[in-house]
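User: Could you check the structure of this?
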Amino acid sequence: MFFWLSDFASTFGPLNIFRYITFRAGAATITALFFVMMFGPAIIDTLRVKQGKGQPIREDGPESHLMKRGTPTMGGLMILSGIVVSTLLWANLTNPFVWAVLGVTLGFGAIGFYDDFLKVTKQSHKGFSSKARLALEAVIAAVACYFITRNFPPALAGTVALPIFKDVLINLGMFFIVFAVFVVVAAGNAVNLTDGLDGLAIVPVMIAAGTFGFIAYLSGNAVFSSYLQIHFIPRTGEIAVILGAVIGAGLGFLWFNAPPAQIFMGDTGSLALGGLLGTVAVATKHEIVFAIVGGLFVLEAASVIIQVASFKLTGKRVFRMAPIHHHYEKKGWKEPQVVIRFWIIAVILALIGLATLKLR
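Assistant: Sure, the predicted structure tokens are below.
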């Protein structure tokens, strides 16, 4: 919305500041943070009244988790509202990539909300049918990814870029959509699996958002992308504004989600944020770099896959409990130890991911 003020810069010069992505990304961060901090307490109180017993706690989980009974969930509503309001205020709403990312975010958020709703009302861990949920996610992702590819330069449409190798493009043709859908859906569910401890998911999400905000800005700038020898994708720089909003909303949510959490993110937030990051990775042609930057999410998802496969094939479990953050709790690590050490891993992986921009 405020971007349009730049149209009057010829009349009043200072309005030209609204053209700058960096300014609007910073403003989006502050706006989303203020929004969540301002309305967060009211949202938490409302959800606590509406949900009664709050999110159901697994009986077979770490004993320390039983103390969290009664904590409301669906905190993702706080995050998503902050992101949407801030994006609508500060982003260029004529940019197609903005709407593709917002569409996946809200679509995945709606699926997660329904899943949370079923869990709370039934007081059961069995929410939405996993097959139906994945099918809906795939449809939403397919529409968004098709829309994104239509806005790629012709030479990049249907291709996957490899980090480090500046001139290597793998042409998947029509199968690129299948690959892109996998990235988006996998990202959504990987973040969802990571969200199991207070503050565990939101900080790595913010780290990934900051990293990809930088990547999006560089990819959408002809000068910087040429200097770094990464693929130039016009208009992707605007995605940095959305990711700024993610950081701001995430910081606001963390204020209430820090141990002991006043509210849980729930599938409403984790599924939406994962889908958002996956869509950004597709739009910026950095899907493989996302697997590095979001390596913590990959590790969490892989631990579940390994655990299930091992138990079905051999009847034995590889981990004491999956996802892997619960494994370390079962080994005796305190919750803050697991969370902070996993944050450190997320920072290291983000730095490795950024390093690929220069290693060409």
